[in-house]
Design brief:
Number of strands: 5
Distance between the termini: 59 Å
Oligomer: single chain
Shape: globular
CATH topology of the largest domain: Nucleotidyltransferase, domain 5
Strand content: 5-15%
CATH class of the largest domain: Alpha Beta
Radius of gyration: 19 Å
Strand order of the largest sheet: 3-2-1-4-5
Structural class: alpha/beta
CATH superfamily of the largest domain: Ribonuclease H-like superfamily/Ribonuclease H
CATH architecture of the largest domain: 2-Layer Sandwich
Helix content: 40-55%
Largest sheet: 5 strands, mixed
């Protein structure tokens, strides 16, 4: 079947689960996939389970975990809450990590980076880019991944006077603001491209994010784009103080 077939079924597995991939691969097999000489059911299921075992949220036992601050919080202003997360981007061969900072109220992607390793230095670089371009939020929310609990990262936020908020262990809904963006960028761009190099992934994802911020209206924002909503709802000097 080749790498493209594995790549497509892997993407389905990411959102539908390995059990459904096993069922899907059986159906594909019955539709003459077996004639290619590939045992689709067993190999696809085993391959997807291996890929799905990757996680970007492994906690470090020695790092401090901060409480989740967003429960019941009404978020209406730009720079009130930023959410930061990392996901992995599957390529033709291997994968890279995408880290992004999203303004929760506007959905605007404030900064991002594509890297080949999962380290605190990349999270630090991305949040510093966001600070430089957009100022300082009241709260920064992340998951409990070691790249976000490392003092190399948390010290940067604390020095800025930000409050740190961290999702519950394995509670992806606590950071649903970024999860929605991951779904958009993957379904609308990444899964259609199967990048053959890191530079290709960086260029294409940057182009997608620019269009997402500038050109894409959201129903939840009264049909405004993230850029339009973000700049229209920045706090006044009194509110920021």
């Amino acid at each position: 079947m080749g790498w493209k077939g594995y790549f497509v079924v892997h993407q389905i597995g990411r959102f539908c689960g390995c059990d459904r991939v096993g069922s899907l691969s059986s159906r594909l097999q019955s539709c003459h996939i077996k004639h290619s000489g590939v045992d689709a059911d067993r190999k696809l299921t085993r391959w997807v389970k291996f890929q799905s075992a990757r996680t970007t949220s492994r906690a470090h036992p020695g790092h401090k975990i901060y409480p989740y601050l967003l429960r019941k919080l009404t978020i209406t202003r730009s720079n009130q809450v930023w959410a930061l997360d990392t996901t992995y981007i599957a390529m033709e061969r291997g994968f890279v990590y995408l880290t992004a900072v999203v303004d929760v109220a506007s959905r605007k992607v404030l900064a991002h980076k594509v890297a080949i390793t999962l380290e605190a230095c990349h999270a630090k670089e991305v949040i510093e880019q966001a600070f430089l371009r957009h100022g300082t939020p009241q709260i920064v929310n992340t998951d409990q991944g070691s790249q976000f609990t490392a003092t190399e990262f948390t010290d940067v936020l604390l020095a800025r006077g930000c409050k740190l908020s961290m999702d519950g262990r394995g509670a992806w809904r606590d950071n649903v603001f970024v999860e929605r963006f991951w779904r958009s960028v993957k379904y609308e761009r990444v899964y259609l491209k199967a990048y053959d190099s890191v530079s290709a992934a960086r260029t294409d994802i940057a182009q997608y994010i620019e269009g997402f911020n500038v050109d894409r209206p959201h129903l939840s924002l009264d049909d405004a784009t993230p850029d339009e909503f973000y700049f229209a709802n920045l706090p006044t000097m009194g509110e920021a103080a």
